[in-house]
Every structure is written in C-alpha cells, then in structure tokens.
Amino acid sequence: MQPLHDIWIGVRDAMMSWHQGKLFIEHIVTIDHDTLHMMAGAMLWLILAMLMRRPITNWYPWGWTLAVIAWNETVDLWNEQWPDAGQQYGEGAKDIMVTMFVPTLILLAARARPDLFRAGFSGRPKRKR
C-alpha cells in the first residue's frame, strides 16, 4: 500500500503546485480573472490544434481543451474550500463556460460558415459569370 500512498502524495503535491502557479499569475497581472480564462482557453485550443495537426473545425482539439479545463477546475475544487459549496461549484461552472466560450464560438462559426475564414472574404456572395 505504500507505493499507492506515495503516488497519491505526488498527485496531491502536483495539484497544489499547479494551483499555486495559477494564483501567482493571477496576482502578477492586472487582467481580470474571467478575461484570463478566456485568453487561456483560446490559446490552449489553438496550441492543441497545432500540436494535433488538426484544423480548428475538428472536434478533437476542442474536446481536449474541455478536458484540460475540466481538470483545471477539479484542481480548483480540490484545493479551495469555500464556505458555501453552491457558490464554489457555481464559480467552477462559470469558469468552464467562460473559458470554452471563444473556442466554441469560433469552432461553430468555422464549421457553419467556412467562407468567413478564407482570405479575401468581402461579405458578399460572388457573382457567377
């Protein structure tokens, strides 16, 4: 049982270090918490799309972004103990929605209207000659 305990201690310490790193970044920049979530979500999604060599219209980078964000919120729930659990879970849900807003909006727009993402888009349909 000792190896399992050691693994658990390692996971717990890693989660705490991740959480402390996020708090450090939040306190050194003068950007609002929700804005940081939006920026992080968009950057993570685009980086994952590049690493996976998939277009932004593909669901894999979006799904992995959601998985990372869900893990991040799990770490927050694990490390922070609010007096009111409802507020804490509500804040976590809000963080996920705010973080995934830009990737979701762009993914859906690119899938529904790929012409909006092509060079030279003028907003008017081309005339047939």
Provide keyphrases for this structure.
129 residues, mainly alpha, 4 helices, 74% helix
Describe this structure as you would to a colleague.
The structure is a single chain. By secondary structure, the chain is mostly helical. It has one domain (2-113). It has helices at 2-28, 33-52, 59-79, 85-112. The protein is elongated and about 75 Å long. The model has no long low-confidence stretch (mean pLDDT 85).
So what's the overall shape? elongated
Enumerate how many helices there are, as a single number.
Answer: 4
Number of domains: 1
Class of secondary structure makeup: mainly alpha
What portion of the residues fall into strands of 2 or more residues?
Answer: under 5%
Helix content: over 70%
Task: Tell me the layout of helices and strands.
Blueprint: H1 2-28, H2 33-52, H3 59-79, H4 85-112
Helix pairs in contact: 1-3, 2-3, 2-4, 3-4
In short:
The chain has 129 residues and is mostly helical. It is built from 4 helices and no strands.
